[in-house]
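Let's study my pick:
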Amino acid sequence: MINELKQARLDKLKKIKEAGIDPYPAKCERTHTVKQALDSFDEFFRSEKEIVLAGRIRMIRTHGGLTFANIEDQSGQIQLFFRRDKIGKEEYAMLKNLDIGDFIQARGSLFTTKRGEKTVLVKDYKILTKSLSPLPEKWHGLKDGEERLRKRYLDILFNPETRKMVEKKAVFWNAVREFYIKRGFLEVETPVLENTVGGADAQPFATHHNALDIDVYLRISAGELWQKRLMVAGFEKTFEIGRIFRNEGISAEHLQDYTQIEFYWAYADYEMAMKLVKEMYCYVAEKTFGTLEFEIRNFKINLGKKWERYDYREEIEKITGVDILKADLNEIRKKLDELKIESEKNLNLARGIDNLWKYCRRKIAGPGFLVNIPVVVSPLAKKLENNPQLTQRFQPIIAGSEVGNGYSELNDPIDQAERFKEQSKLRAAGDKEAQMTDKEFIKALEYGMPPTAGFGVSERLFSFLMNKPIRECQIFPLMRPKP
């Protein structure tokens, strides 16, 4: 059936070309959007001013010498009225070669029909694009979730909720940028291709740089180690919004290619950063959604209320009975098995502790900050002065998950080198997410970096506030090609 409909359109395309008409011209003479025409309708109607509109045909019907069509642009829909005696026999006859989905421009004046509908009386028209595949008549024709993501353009075209999501996402990132610029942060760009990846525990994508004949990695953070170099260079407030890439699994919270914001703030610590992060979350939520109250994963979240503090060690011990600062790997593995939590074959202490925490976090509604996180899972954070087993690290907790990560940055080059050394041992033992040693970064720290707080959050925050899986909140998520 689809092939027959497509063939019918190909036949119409042929007739259009045979008439000497270009079905795909470059030039369009549009003078107004549909919304502008409707907003100024009375003025245009009284003056009988001619305007030119353009858009996609969403409906077309013919009654003898009269044809009605609805066209739609991004701003809205309006009805067109074609009369054979107004546009001429040949031009009117060519209307039969138009289909729903085609783009046209129409020149004419505005009037109101007997039924009270604001309409354009068309004087002349022009084909802008001849569509070859028929649009689904109703959106339920594409109810398969994967097909909606694969043909996202149709999802956006027919589903107002998806269109609004795309628009809100733009507002979201603009609000993030606006927030930091207003507070004196400088927006920067740092390398996406790196010799050594750092700034997160994640498995990178690897590729080859032909010109330099070297293997490189796609970054796994929004320039953490580069922005810290800028602190060494004398900048005091920087941020970057950019794509990062992690060669990991897909889940409702995880993707491999997504946008993240990271900021670095000299002469600040993690307590100051937490205050700024709460302000940012509230600012962006209000700007994007017009509210601070959300329902996320059956949790009722109010970002405007007091944010709680959750102690990493205490939360795990309360739920599992394990004291992570005293337990060894065997004890943690035994508890993971008891709780039926899957773990890696080459499980190490850091990964085991992290798996326990991920089990525990699911019941914490938030909003709040996870604090007192152990050194063993925090290779880039400063230690707590009163307990060197813990760090000055924090993570915002919303609806049972971490939605961001920040800390007082480690600026001791000797301590940093030792932690990289420990991470290297984990990588050698098979932990692909352990961090690589970045000797150039250590060298930069040797020149001196002031006390600095840093923080990063990905578009996971947007997906949480939308209460949707993160993949559905990407405009064009990566899909496996059809065979």
